[in-house]
Amino acid sequence: MRKTISIIVTGKVQGVFYRQSAKEKATYSGIVGMIKNLPDRSVYIIATGTTEQLDLFINWCRSGPPKAVVSSIITEELPFCEFVHFTIER
């Protein structure tokens, strides 16, 4: 069964290819949704997938790409949202 979650990632996550790397990881994993930078220098993600897909993606988000330094992540289940792709919003 598919579900939708939000993920807020804090730390050094802007300017280190976090969004592009997350998009590649999500697409490879079969996850759809969106990612964007927030003004407070964190990253906001909405992701839809199976529980297994999302668990693996959350684990990836804890470290991110090589130049990222993740301080924390906050996840929350959202009402189901259907997306066609995983996109980067600006």
Radius of gyration: 12 Å
Mean pLDDT: 98
* Termini Cα gap: 30 Å
Shape: globular
Give the fraction of residues assigned to helices. 25-40%
> Which regions contain 5 or more consecutive residues with pLDDT less than 50?
none
Query: With helices defined by DSSP (H or I, 4 residues minimum), what is the helix count?
Result: 2
For the largest beta-sheet, the strand count, sense and barrel status come to: 5 strands, mixed
Strand order of the largest sheet: 4-1-3-2-5
General description of the model:
- By secondary structure, the protein is of the alpha+beta class.
- It is about 25% helix and about 45% strand.
- It is built from two helices and five strands.
- A five-stranded mixed beta sheet has the order 4-1-3-2-5.
- A hairpin with a 5-residue loop joins β2 and β3.
- α1 runs antiparallel to α2.
- The chain is globular and about 35 Å long.
- The mean pLDDT is about 100.
